[in-house]
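I am still getting used to backbone structure tokens and would like to learn alongside you. Please make up or recall a protein chain and show it to me in full. Would you write everything just below, so we can both look at the same thing?
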Amino acid sequence: MDLRHLRYFIAVAEERNIGRAATRLHISQPPLTRQIQQLEEELGVQLFTRTPRGMELTQPGEMFLEEARNIRSVVEQATERTQRAGQGKLGRLDIGIFGSAILGTIPRLLLAFRSAYPEVKVILHNMNKEAQIEALRQRRIDLGFNRFIEPSDDIAREHVATEQLFLAINISNPLAQRPTVPFGLLAEHPLILFPSGPRPSFVDKVMGMCQQAGFTPQVAQEVGDTVTGIALVASNFGVCLVPESATVLTLPGVVYRPLSDAPENAPVDLSCMYRMGDASPILNSFLETIRTSRNGITSQ
């Protein structure tokens, strides 16, 4: 039995007439009659009683009509869901996240994507850059957000945003009284760096900026993430350079100030990385959300 048999049977059962059913199906009567006869032979039951008025369903025929309609409904739903998945509108997306971007940029992207594709389930995985790359290669995640991503033959990158740097300062620090902070003054204050771990990272960028400005920073502590760094600022352990997205984090005693004379390379990029050549419709939908957001257009 194939789906064509079911479609023909439902048409005859609903029309109660071979001629009207044939017209509805855009076929001639003889092949439709043969298809119904083949279906009855396959099932081993009589589905219709032939009368001068047309085709009347038998009791087994009534039962089979109910089942056939159920099967048709399931097939239609499966077809629609498959088509929506093929359009990137249905399914699951696993995303690796890490660092300060989760405080601002990434949530905005996730909200825009969810609004446009509410039937896609998004699963977030907290993992550092190296873990994200490994998970991508093992197909455990579909994409990851991070900074300072080195070129790779099998990992593609999509630029998400460029952020200015701000200085997180304890309110008791004299620097907090300034509307902007000259970068060179960082030489006079203990500096908290993040993230600790594999390089290159944001630590290397900050150290390079200090060297470019002509001083070696007083490193008070290297910590694992942005939140820990700002928490140490709240304890007056030192000052900490952070991307703009981190300034949404409010802790008692912490203020943020822009830099008045930061080096030209001070802005930091946030990128999305994914497997090279991945043609997943859902991934492509998410990448399109990133591009729309980057261009300052509200995703529809």
Summary: The chain has a mean pLDDT of 91. The chain is about 40% helix and 25% strand. The first helix runs from residue 3 to 15.
